[in-house]
Design brief:
- The complex is a heterodimer.
- Chain A is 34% helix and 28% strand.
- Chain A is α+β, with helices and mostly antiparallel strands.
- The termini of chain A are far apart.
- By secondary structure, chain B is of the alpha/beta class.
- Chain B is 18% helix and 28% strand.
- Chain B has a seven-stranded mixed β-sheet, sandwiched between helices. Chain B has a six-stranded antiparallel β-sheet with strand order 4-3-6-1-2-5. Chain B has a two-stranded antiparallel sheet with strand order 13-14.
- The chains are: A alpha+beta, B alpha/beta.
- Chains A and B meet through β5 and α4 of A and β10 and α4 of B.
């Protein structure tokens, strides 16, 4: 692992408040990755062996619906995380993630990190805590959208 | 900000202002009708036999559709624009009648009423507010902010603070004032859009309007915000701005209740100790208002 990679991992918002040891362990499973506009970071049904810490660009999360094509459910950008299927069996992507523009990110080997998390409970807890925060934010955002705030609520 | 006025909430126990003239509609003629979306229409109005109205950004008028009823609608033009515009969403009997108005039809106008966004034009450059202004609008919520954004962009062109316009809509076809958004962007404002439901041709952001805050690029510790849209959206946006470091005193929200008289007489628009037709619609988020927004009303 290079120091440069460690520095990149350390400053990503996902790693905020993680201790030095955890940052070191996560960085050991990390590599730099770039995606051209339109290319897939992951595809529905594929093995979820990686997750991505976005550094620049926007990524669409989409699902293919027969008759409607690819429907974008959400977009995420710099500072966000793409993918948590690497953490939960059967480790399979449930959505497509596609670069909307030039995307720069840190790709983290999920299998590598799972092994480290199993042998180091403090890392495992730290990771689950961080993923929980992300999941909670997305869940709250989804709940808000379910309210259909801007919808046509007619009054007579 | 050029004005030395500060926004404070007056309790409703203060004797109401207003006089009988405030209750008399002034007849206006529809001189232009603009279809913004499938259910939002902008009416440009001119008085039949009265001087043009003087108003401030964020205030509202009571518009009458004769024979149908009266509703509160914020002005969607800037005071310096020279026209009186109202953008109306067709959601009920009165708004439907107004949206169906044609050029030449007559409508009643009472106003202007209420508080404003505090964005008066500064006469000298030294008075321009150097702070960033973050304008967050949801759906038709951009209408009461349109005039304010126009003033802010003009101020920015003269050396005032930067302007960030963040807009959320249900779907791309529900984004209002597209030409204005393009114009503001071309004149230096940072304009970001997001929708809840993407359509195949939409290649922009998808998600809550709050997701636009993180990478907008403003300095939250030296900025102010103006929020207008569904109340839940404003609540969550205000909280997110405070989490980013913004002073709650610098956050203004536009609230709406059942405005009827417009002058604080009838009490239909009461929110806690406030009468929003008079003490609002634009109020500071800090303090009592932030608490009232999370309480069940009786």
């Amino acid at each position: 692992m290079s120091k440069a990679m460690r520095d990149l991992v350390e400053v990503h918002p996902f790693m905020t408040s993680m201790n030095e040891e955890s940052i070191e362990l996560v960085s050991g499973c990390a590599r730099n990755a770039v995606f051209a506009p339109g290319s897939l970071l992951c595809a529905e049904g594929g093995d979820a062996d990686t997750f991505y810490l976005l550094r620049r660009g926007q990524v669409s999360i989409s699902v293919h619906i027969p008759g409607r094509g690819s429907v974008v459910i959400e977009t995420v950008g710099a500072g966000d995380v793409v993918g948590w299927s690497w953490l939960v069996p059967p480790y399979r992507w449930t959505f497509d993630a596609r670069a909307m523009d030039d995307v720069g990110c840190i790709a983290i080997d999920g299998a590598c990190l799972r092994v480290k998390a199993l042998t180091d409970p403090s890392l495992g807890f730290a990771l689950l805590s961080k993923v929980s925060v992300t999941l909670l934010e997305r869940l709250q955002a989804t709940r808000m959208r379910l309210l259909d705030l801007y919808g046509d609520h007619r009054v007579q | 900000m050029s004005s030395d006025r500060t926004l404070s909430m007056r309790p409703s126990s203060v004797a109401p202002r207003g006089n009988l003239n405030d209750l008399t509609p002034i007849v206006h003629r529809v001189v232009e009708r603009i279809g913004e979306t499938n259910d939002i229409t902008t009416l440009v109005l001119e008085p039949l036999d009265a001087p043009s109205m003087t108003f401030r950004c964020g205030q509202f008028n009571m518009l009458s559709a004769f024979g149908v009823g009266e509703i509160a609608i914020s002005m969607s033009s800037a005071p310096g624009e020279g026209t009186l515009r109202h953008s109306i969403r067709d959601v009920g009997a009165v708004s439907h009648a107004l949206c169906q108005s044609r050029v030449g039809d007559l409508v009643g106008v009472r106003g202007p009423f209420g508080s404003d966004w505090l964005v008066e034009s500064a006469s000298v450059e030294a008075d321009l507010d150097p702070r960033d202004t973050i304008v967050v609008a949801g759906g038709i919520g951009l209408a009461p902010l349109r005039g304010a954004v126009e003033e802010l962009v003009r101020a920015n062109e003269r050396g005032g603070g930067r302007v960030f316009v963040l807009v959320g809509a249900r779907e791309p076809s529900q984004i209002v004032f597209r030409a204005d958004l393009d114009s503001w962007r071309a004149r230096g404002a940072k304009v970001s859009l997001t929708v809840d439901l993407a359509t195949p041709e939409w290649d922009g952001r998808v998600g809550l309007v709050t997701t636009l805050l993180a990478d907008a690029g403003f300095d939250a510790t030296n900025s102010r915000a103006m929020l207008c849209g569904p109340e839940v959206m404003m609540r969550f946006t205000a909280r997110a701005l405070v989490d980013l470091g913004m002073d709650p005193e610098g956050i203004l929200v536009s609230l709406e209740r059942n405005m009827q008289c417009g002058v604080g007489w009838c009490g239909h628009c009461q929110l806690g100790p406030f009468l929003l037709c008079r003490d609002g619609p634009v109020v500071p988020y800090a303090g009592l208002v932030s608490q009232l927004l999370t309480q069940r009303e009786r």
